[in-house]
Amino acid sequence: MAQHSNRQWILKKRPVGDIADDDLVIETTPIPTAGDGEVVLRTHYLSLDPTNRIWMSDMVQYMPPVALNTAMRGAVMGEVVESRSPAYQIGDQVMGLATWSDYCCVPAANLQLCPQLPGIPVKEVFGIYTIVGPTAYFGVVDIGQPKVGETLVVSGAAGAVGALVGQIAKTMGCRVVGIAGGKDKCKMIVDELGFDAAIDYKAQDVDAQLRTLCPGGVDIYFDNVGGDILDAVLGQMNLFGRVIVCGLISGYNADGRVPGPKNYGNILMKRLKVQGFIVLDYIPRYAEAYRALTQWHSQGKLKWNLHEVEGLENAVQAVRMLYTGGNHGKLMVKVA
Amino acid sequence: MAQHSNRQWILKKRPVGDIADDDLVIETTPIPTAGDGEVVLRTHYLSLDPTNRIWMSDMVQYMPPVALNTAMRGAVMGEVVESRSPAYQIGDQVMGLATWSDYCCVPAANLQLCPQLPGIPVKEVFGIYTIVGPTAYFGVVDIGQPKVGETLVVSGAAGAVGALVGQIAKTMGCRVVGIAGGKDKCKMIVDELGFDAAIDYKAQDVDAQLRTLCPGGVDIYFDNVGGDILDAVLGQMNLFGRVIVCGLISGYNADGRVPGPKNYGNILMKRLKVQGFIVLDYIPRYAEAYRALTQWHSQGKLKWNLHEVEGLENAVQAVRMLYTGGNHGKLMVKVA
User: Fold this and answer.
1) Residue B14 sits in the same domain as residue B93
2) Model pTM score
């Protein structure tokens, strides 16, 4: 499937609210050539993640936003087709932050070889072990510090991170309640993933359901969404509870700044620890997450699903799914 | 000054907004007598603290609110005049949570002997070492975890806790900026207490002043106030910053729930740790705070000031000062 030109998604405008059709456009350029210390890779997969929407905006964020009129940034897996770095040879399977393009020219230092994990296909290594797996692992283990018998609530529970969070917490002895949108997703996280209970935020009163399903209160809240759901859970937190601020997806599409949680005062009254984290800070400790995830997966305690969309040209359409709840599992685009 | 009747401040109504004159009234009753395991003390001093206003309300809080038509709760120091507990003898100087009364009848388990600290008068032991000193100490040391050269900002900086916070942080090698109301207080914390800089929130743009005075950002924020000042500081926090949620005084007098911080999203983007605490959780570790405070005080690194109001009948008038900024130093009422 080699081709002689290179399609790139270019960020033309910063989205206001939902991503519009003309915010990003495909432009075709020659296939790049590597400069000194650089590598050109043929993209096999893009990982699509809620953070992509952050990078398109100019909100305060954890790395510089994508500059207008440049290629959209993304986590990419591919095969080295040209190398001017001693670190990589043609044919190596690599991954790292690159661009939404058929071919990416990247400094060798921004890449790593795809880890070889026994029994895990390389696209699952990329889809699960690069971002979402370590995010769930370090969020729960390092910040949540769960104790056996505690109650953990996770929002975005049917999403790629949330599904792993719940399963990891179950494995560590917690009672787990997931909040997701729609009956099917709620059924899936209970029946297939083993959550203790689910709340359908689209059809149910989250506050009332929390009181019913967590009569002893909430010890750990893994937050992927922010907004009203955050407020509802903050209101039910137990003394010395932990809130893991992993995502605030309800606000990323917002036009303007969103209000803060009205129940912020509970941080004081209940002596909560509310801690934000970005998984990139944990890269030096990834081996620990890889070991745990692989072990639990081999024991059947950790399941995941990839949701593959075919074709680079469908990347923007696909990323919108993360905001409509259209994806079922870790969202990836198969490029070649 | 012995008297033959006992005046008590009774909570008649829950204040809405500022404390009204008829929310608490003085009632006169006979001097109580001790039941089994109880002690009667003659009150010498009340400690007035912002948390008193919380206890008057029925907001979600860290201990039960004061019941209507009962005596107002407060931290009290006094002398034992009757004891039916082997733990205390007549004449002992004791302190603990009791009521705003001339005489308090208290279970012995709720009291402790006033610690004897070399060179510290007993009313300072009560005023500084019971609540505000350990609050400042554990907040800065345990939650703030300051490193030499970091920048700490404290709100309510001229208040009893804030003044100690800044001095402790200076002693630990931080650059310290205090936020206080009025030129005199700002001058005092810089000239007398050694803060590096001050921001007068009543006269200056806090956001702009923070940018000017903390060009390298804020590593630690010790929050006593919440509200708009919290939002301004959240906007200037550095990566991995710590926010110590000690008080949210701007909201205690509010009529209804106050909005949450608009900059809540920075908790994620800057990977902040926002942690609430109540000093009562640290009582098992008080000896550590006592040692540090006493040593720093003896070295001249830690100054404090008591603001004494004369007469139990002035307690309500006095507690309002905490909300108008009328007090200069740790606020206490001298009862007898």
Assistant:
1) yes
2) 0.91
Amino acid A255: pLDDT: 65
Domain count, chain B: 2
> B63: closest CA among B55, B73, B75?
B55
My answer on whether B147 and B292 are in the same domain is yes
Contacts of B221 (CB under 8 A, 6+ apart): B152, B153, B154, B155, B230, B233, B234, B237, B241, B242, B243, B244
Q: Do A267 and A152 share a domain, yes or no?
A: yes
Q: How confident is the model at residue B249 (pLDDT cuts 50, 70, 90)?
A: confident
Neighbours of B118 (CB within 10 A): 6
| B277 and B323 share one domain | no
In a domain, B87, yes or no: yes
Cα–Cα distance measured from residue B135 to residue B162, given in angstroms and rounded to the nearest whole number: 10
Q: In angstroms, what separates the C-alpha of A201 from chain B's closest C-alpha?
A: 22
Give the Cα separation of B296 and B303 in Å (integer): 9
What is the CATH classification number for the domain harbouring A79? 3.90.180.10
CB nearest B262 (choices: A246, A257, A278): A257
Interface check B144 vs A, CB under 8 A: no
> What gap in Å lies between CA A304 and CA A323, rounded to an integer?
20
φ and ψ at residue B244, rounded to 5 degrees: -95, 110
Q: Tell me: the pLDDT tens digits for A156-174?
A: 999 999 999 999 999 999 9
Q: B258 at the A interface (CB within 8 A)?
A: yes
Structure-model confidence comparison of residues B41 and B283, the more confident one: B41
Q: List Cα–Cα distances, B287 to A112, B134, B143, in angstroms.
A: 51, 9, 18
Is A271 in CB contact (< 8 Å) with chain B?
yes
Within a domain: B126: no
Is any Cβ of chain B less than 8 angstroms from the Cβ of A268?
A: yes
Q: How far is B97 from chain A (nearest CA, A)?
A: 18
Q: Which domain holds residue A59?
A: 5-114+305-334
Sign of the CA dihedral with A77 first, then A81, A87, and A92 last: positive
Same domain, A100 and A133: no
Residue A57's H or E segment, with its range, is none
Do B181 and B314 sit in the same domain of this protein? no
- The pLDDT value recorded for residue B1 is 47
Work out how many CB contacts closer than 8 A connect A with B: 113
A60/chain B closest Cα distance in angstroms:
7
The residue-averaged pLDDT of B71-80 equals 97
The nearest CA of chain B is from the CA of A56 a distance in Å of 15
Whether B257 and B138 map to the same domain: the answer is: yes
Whether residue A261 contacts residue B264, with contact meaning beta carbons closer than 8 Å, is answered with yes
Contacts of A248 in chain B (CB under 8 A): 264-265, 268
